[in-house]
């Protein structure tokens, strides 16, 4: 049977969702990734040149120091098994393709029009005015819709915590909002990760591609899902390195909004049903305690 505490928590979730939906502004439609690129040309961004990455892990160490995260044996942050996890906001994964081994830095891509923020009906995830997408754990209700919405599979959850939080790279918002580079880029000894403004970095990416035939003629993140603030150039095809290459150029929030807009009325309807069940349960218990038949 549904306990009183669980019932109250569920009902509160439905009410809060309704309040958020009522306060949410109408979404501004942006149909072309080129327009998004122009709008966000001055956002802080990072260009990763996979031909320069040596897999040293300095970026990962800097990230852990900046965010006070531990090294865990069960959550490898370097090598072939490296994966984003509650203690890994950034990892360097090793991949071999076409006879060449490359080290690939992975973290939140910081989409220009983020699906994770669109899916979050309590706005625990928001795109800041400065550009990075940040997480407010005090607002989070633990629904984990953001994990499903992200096209890059980035957000993770603290499954081993009683009150787990969503974890993801915030592009060192405390640093970048003050005009300082992200910790990982400052620590890179080979210049594989370059911090700057998105428009300038995109121009630099194409300068490198045009000047050297080794590079694949594509900047990953330029147009994927409307564009991202982390962009990559490579001499190995991106699909061979495990990048998602079947993504649309259009931003995804228009799709997620069609689903998440239905959450508040569904939650309220569920709350009403739970109230009915709870009242019936209380009536049955009262009749039993009074010696009557339910």
Quick one: CATH class?
Alpha Beta
**Beta-strand content:** 5-15%
Structural class: alpha/beta
N-to-C SSE string, H for helix and E for strand: HHEHEEEHEEHEEHHEHEHH
- Count of domains: 1
Query: How much helicity do the residues have?
Result: 25-40%
Low-confidence stretches: 1-29
Overall mean pLDDT: 85
* Count of helical regions: 10
Question: Main sheet?
Answer: 3 strands, mixed
Q: Which CATH architecture would you pick?
A: 2-Layer Sandwich
| Widest beta sheet: strand line-up | 9-1-10
End-to-end gap: 16 Å
Number of strands: 10
CATH topology: Alpha-Beta Plaits
Rg from Cα: 23 Å
Write the layout of secondary structure elements.
Blueprint: H1 4-23, H2 33-39, E1 44-49, H3 58-67, E2 78-79, E3 91-97, E4 100-106, H4 115-119, E5 125-127, E6 133-135, H5 145-149, E7 156-157, E8 166-167, H6 173-176, H7 183-187, E9 193-197, H8 198-211, E10 230-233, H9 253-260, H10 263-289
For the structure shown, list the relevant keywords.
disordered N terminus; Alpha-Beta Plaits; elongated; 294 residues; alpha/beta; 10 helices
Tell me about this structure.
The longest helix has 27 residues, at 263-289. The protein is of the alpha/beta class and 294 residues long. α1 (4-23) runs antiparallel to α10. The radius of gyration is 23 Å and the shape is elongated. It has one domain (33-259): Alpha-Beta Plaits, CATH 3.30.70. The chain has a 3-stranded mixed beta sheet with strand order 9-1-10. Strands 2-3-4 form a 3-stranded mixed beta sheet, with no helix packed on it. A two-stranded antiparallel ribbon has the order 5-6. The model is unreliable at 1-29 (pLDDT under 50). The two termini are 16 Å apart. The chain contains 10 helices and 10 strands.
């Amino acid at each position: 049977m549904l306990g009183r505490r669980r019932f109250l928590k569920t009902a509160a979730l439905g009410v809060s969702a309704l309040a958020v939906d009522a306060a949410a502004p109408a979404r501004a439609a942006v149909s072309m990734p080129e327009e998004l690129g122009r709008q966000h040309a001055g956002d802080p961004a990072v260009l990763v040149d996979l031909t320069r990455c040596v897999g040293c892990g300095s970026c990962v160490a800097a990230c852990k120091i900046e965010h006070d995260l531990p090294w865990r044996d069960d959550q490898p942050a370097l090598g072939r098994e490296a994966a984003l996890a509650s203690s890994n906001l950034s990892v360097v994964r090793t991949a071999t393709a076409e006879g060449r081994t490359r080290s690939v830095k992975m973290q939140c891509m910081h989409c220009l029009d983020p699906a994770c923020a669109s899916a979050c009906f309590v706005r625990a995830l928001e795109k800041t005015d400065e550009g990075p997408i940040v997480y407010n754990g005090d607002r989070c209700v633990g629904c984990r819709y953001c994990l499903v919405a992200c096209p890059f599979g980035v957000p993770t959850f603290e499954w081993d915590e009683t009150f787990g939080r969503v974890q993801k790279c915030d592009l060192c918002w405390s640093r970048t909002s003050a005009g300082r580079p992200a910790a990982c880029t400052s620590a890179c000894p080979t210049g594989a990760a370059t911090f700057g403004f998105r428009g300038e970095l995109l121009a630099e990416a194409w300068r490198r591609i045009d000047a050297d035939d080794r590079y694949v003629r594509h900047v990953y993140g330029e147009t994927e899902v409307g564009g991202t603030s982390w962009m990559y150039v490579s001499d190995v095809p991106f699909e061979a390195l495990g990048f998602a290459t079947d993504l649309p150029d259009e931003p995804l929030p228009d799709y997620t909004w069609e689903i998440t807009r239905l959450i508040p009325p569904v939650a309220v309807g569920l709350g009403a049903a739970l109230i009915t069940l709870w009242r019936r349960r209380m009536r049955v218990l009262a009749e039993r305690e009074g010696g009557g038949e339910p």
